[in-house]
Specification:
Two copies of one chain form a homodimer.
Chain A: E1 3-9, H1 13-24, H2 26-33, E2 36-43, H3 47-52, E3 60-61, H4 64-68, E4 74-77, H5 84-94, E5 98-101, H6 104-120, E6 125-126, H7 137-144, E7 150-156, H8 159-171, H9 175-184, H10 193-196, H11 199-213, E8 223-224, H12 232-240, E9 243-254, E10 257-268, E11 280-287, E12 291-298, H13 302-317, H14 326-329, E13 344-353, H15 359-369, E14 374-379, E15 388-394, E16 397-398, H16 399-410, E17 415-424
């Protein structure tokens, strides 16, 4: 039986999970793939920690570059970040090593450079764990749906944000309270901004869009808005209109461009993604032949993420190549990305206005002037920051026009607070 | 760019879909995989039909064995059945051709023989389309979750049966009425028994169980019960107890054996599979590291099924091997399968009894004698075939014991109709 030598760089949460799998399930994995997997080297600053996992001391080093320069066939980069991790990955590739990584930020920033280096050196990069944790969604998109033009990707791909919105929805609590619970449960970092500001989801959708549309989409191409300004009030209004609020990642092609965005969105309550709650992730991928398909599971955590990393190791051991289309391996593949001003959507808009006659007329006359067509409107006598909420949903309209109209409305003396705007995904 | 020559045997619904994909999406597929796909030969008795799809006449033959004996690299078997299809596949393999197929019956009956022939001849078989239509669930199980011991597979993998049960549930109609609608919509065949009697789902779960547990499970190893005796009354009672009735395919390991079954089951209404409605399919796969994962999409139909067939062609073109574990390729891999008498489950039981005092006491004393513990009981004064329904759910009990107890109860003179029994999957 052939064997493949694996070196792990970074033995934190995910790295320890990979070691655990290789200790517990190696027999069944080797039987399935018909190759031996040898864990030859583990690099971590904390040698004692690695020893406690059951890795013999002779296999442990304290410098990731020692792994890169060793005899391993596959370098598993699990240190995260885009600085040292990039150097490790780049030199691994240049040393003719295959790379497995869970690093979404790295590939959403330097995908083109790194895959191009892999191509030039005749080695593979796989990074299933970078999106959707243990769910094999990159494999599904790149291999399973290879026959399809991808019409749309809708993802709930940040478990922390989804947990917070689920808590807010089911318990009627504020963002701050829900964030606190997420922190207590270990779902939110001390600095939660990567998660709640949508940046982590933006990294992930950039990767999925790159694979689906065959050109590198980077984090800078993604329109990003987080969930900090979602209030229980908007969650309630959403419910009255038949919607759930989710932090949604969207990628879809339109007229030779790709639209890639991450933001809170209202989804119909009977939409399959509306029932994805808590820390779970799900990705809805629609192809022109296959129709809608959904992939669901744990989007984070030691064990699910390690499951995806080991699947990548097995795939490389079986010679299954990189986890992006061959067309992406060559430098320079680019696709035009839409600017936010080009987005078209239906919207939920909440104005905060003084409780006087004529307010609705003033607002709707400005919307009318911009040809923004109102679908439903609701005015409630709830005191809110010195005003009352006036809530509307619109038919499809240009994001740019809606923002211009709202800016004009917000200058009206009947408006007492900046207006809240949220896209609706039907 | 390397190229791969493909020959299709059988150009019916799925075959025509494959031709359509290769005509419409070949550009994008070839870009993604970096290989050319040449459709070199199509065999069908109806040559005119194939010409109408846009296949040049010189590529069309009327005998599948001509494809097998030609220069093609991959034979795509899409004639179905287990007689001629088996001969075609066997001789293709012996002629050194890779095989792609959508034929669940073939592999659930002759998987061991055919994969062993593939192994001996150094070629691959892929059959993604055989389970879950366009959903890449075999790929997920065999490759994406390779690092996991599979703790459970729960599948809704027959779209026709699921459509019928969904219609019965949402519209309160009988099995016969729902079957008629399924026929009118083209979801049910003239002879619907493969679908409604659970045989198609049994073929599919046999294949999934074989992959998950590394030993061949055949259709004869699967306990199968269909949905013909499901009534609107049981659907209503299920709802009162908080359950939905689905035709469920189950595979799970227990104590060195594998339990593989297909039957109507009650699922809690908030179970993720309970919301899989209509012709949609979904498969919940739980691994020891990844936790629960779900794969959802169109389980049948020309376009989704063809999507899976073409993905297999692409995988073979990329040298990705067979879609079963290497351990399955060798003849003789067997795993012990549980007999139905060994199943343990909680149950829903509906007795039809005369409307007299003491009936419940008689029934429950027999259940008590067999140590079957009642969880909930409900007696209603609805006239039903000369009796009233007495409905119960039980705690976990042996299937064998429950059947013995029911046989004894059914002999009581207060029981007027044979008792209805349904497993509950919590």
């Amino acid at each position: 039986m052939d064997s493949v030598k694996v070196g792990i760089v970074g033995c934190g949460t995910v790295g320890s999970g990979v070691v655990k799998i290789l200790l517990q399930n190696r027999d069944i994995i080797e039987e399935r793939i018909g190759k031996k997997i040898e864990l030859s080297m583990v690099a971590d600053r904390d040698v004692e920690k690695v020893k406690k996992l059951g890795v013999p001391e002779k296999f442990i080093v304290n410098d990731g570059f020692k792994v890169v320069e060793s005899e391993v066939d596959i370098v598993v980069e699990l240190i995260g970040g885009t600085t040292v991790a990039k150097d490790i990955v780049k030199s691994a590739l240049e040393n003719g090593k295959h790379v497995v990584s869970a690093n979404k930020a790295l590939f959403a920033s330097y995908g083109e450079e790194l895959f191009s280096a892999a191509f030039e050196n005749g080695v593979s990069i796989r990074f299933e764990a970078s999106v959707g944790g243990g769910i094999p969604v990159i494999k599904a998109l790149n291999e399973g749906l290879v026959a399809n033009r991808i019409e749309k990707i809708l993802g709930i791909i940040n478990g922390t944000a989804n947990f917070i919105l689920t808590e807010m929805t089911t318990r009627g609590i504020s963002f701050e309270e829900a964030l606190k619970i997420a922190g207590e449960k270990g779902y939110a970092e001390a600095d939660p901004s990567l998660d709640v500001d949508g940046i982590d989801a933006a990294h992930k959708i950039a990767i999925l869009a790159s694979i689906a549309y065959g050109g590198w989409v980077t984090i800078n191409d993604v329109y990003v808005k987080g969930i900090r300004d979602i209030t229980p009030l908007d969650i309630d209004f959403a419910h009255e209109f038949g919607y759930r609020i989710k932090l949604l990642a969207v990628a879809k092609p339109d007229n030779g461009k790709v639209e890639v965005r991450v933001h809170p969105a209202m989804l119909p309550e009977d939409h399959i993604l509306s029932s994805v709650d808590g820390v779970f992730n799900a990705c809805l991928i629609e192809g022109d032949f296959v129709g809608p398909t959904l992939y669901y599971g744990m989007g984070a955590g030691q064990r699910p993420t390690a499951s995806a990393v080991v699947a990548d190791i097995a795939d490389i051991a079986c010679g299954r190549g990189s986890s992006v289309p061959v067309s992406l391996l060559k430098r320079g593949a680019k696709i035009p990305v839409k600017r936010p001003g080009e987005f078209v959507s239906s919207f939920y808009i909440r104005f905060t206005a003084v409780d006087k006659p004529g307010v609705l007329a003033k607002i709707s006359s400005i919307l009318g002037k911009y040809n923004i067509s109102i679908k439903m409107a609701l005015q409630k006598s709830i005191a809110l920051n010195g005003g009352v909420p006036v809530v509307m949903t619109t038919h499809e309209a240009s994001f740019k026009t809606v923002k211009v109209a709202i800016a004009e409305i917000d200058k009206l003396d009947v408006i007492v607070k900046p207006t809240f705007l949220c896209m609706i995904e039907e």
